[in-house]
Amino acid sequence: KNMVLRIKGVALVVVGWAAVATSCNTEAELAADLSNSHDGQGGLPEKQWLNEDGSWKEGWVPAPLHLLPQDAGDESPACLDGSPYGFYFSPSKTGSKRWTVSISGGGWCYSECECYTRSKMALGTSTLWKQEGGCNCMNVNANGTLDEDCNCLYMPYGDGASFSGFREKPWPVVQPETPPWPTTCNSTEIKDKVLYFRGIKNFDATMDFLFENGLKDAEEFVLTGGSAGGLSTFLHTDRIRARLEKEAPAVKRITAAPVVGYFLDHANFAHDAANYTNKMKWIYNMQNLTFGPDGGLKPECQAAFPDDPHYCFMSPHMQQFIETPFFMFNSKYDAWQLGNELQTPWTNATERAAVLQYGVDFMNQFNPVRSESNNGAMITSCICHGCNWPGLMVEGQNSYQHYADWFFGKTAGGNASVHVDTRGPNGDGAITDPRCSKWP
Question: For tag attachment on the chain, is the N or C end more exposed, with fewer CB atoms within 10 Å?
Fold first, then answer.
């Protein structure tokens, strides 16, 4: 079904596969993303606190936007435009010791020009964030429902690099010289403009706040995120786990639940240089992703890929080094990846064959997860990115029921906790969920 969205008076009609935005770096791309049931959350749980008309449910209290102080000089947390980083924190109403940190997604900016454009949008400045928000728990109950009263903190996205970069000094906005993809700026507009790359400082300062506000008493902790926030979850779960093990003596269980964050290292349909892997390499260099205390990447991964350290910014390469148990949710025909990595619709037989091969390639890059005894997964064939996880079934159970079985030890972990829909796109036509893009 086509969708029409209006932003600043402009009507945008979003059709089929094109409903997936390229990278959310323009108002039009962000509008397409919103219309695709994504809203930066990439299939994270529905907004439990809202009624269908957008009003708050009885008993739910909006969380105020909390902006962090910028009192640490060049190490202060900041969005791309230099505005303060912040979040929405909803403490438990019943004194629960269960905690969720939920990280927003919204693509990446692949050049200084794109980051500058993003810095004037809600994905790059806190000046446009709502004053109140909510947070969905990812702590699961044994029956496959999600807890509705954990201590929950929602992290909006403000840095364009999955909370991973850090440069002390402002970075000049310049016309890029070498990227092989369209990325030009208005030379007059960017004159004397700068960007702030503080993603890992935003993450660490947020965790500092939580430890000062009850996290030290946690008994259960889940890190989750959707889309680019799903990549953040893969990247940073061991970072917060290390702190919890030192600073939260009562914690019994630390897990991660990355949602649609398994982005392949894959050629595009044209087999040219404008592919996702090269773009992630550009981010790695531009935002100064590193492996030390000020870096968002894992040193063990750097040792494995000394000639290609940007691989450590990609989940299929770095996940083998994660020590925290995780249960991941993904589509093998992820709609964002088909539109932005494979970079083709499926309007003819050749393109459709490439989509089917992408599903095969996804499973090949995913297969190492099967052999890791601590982990689990739900892999759907629905062509989605903002997926309806409670409604997607494999082996007679929905996604969260499988998640609960893994969490509570009803499945043994590893391959026993990995649930894959082996059918073709949209279950060979059997899945009719409206969030699945039409196939063929």
Answer: N
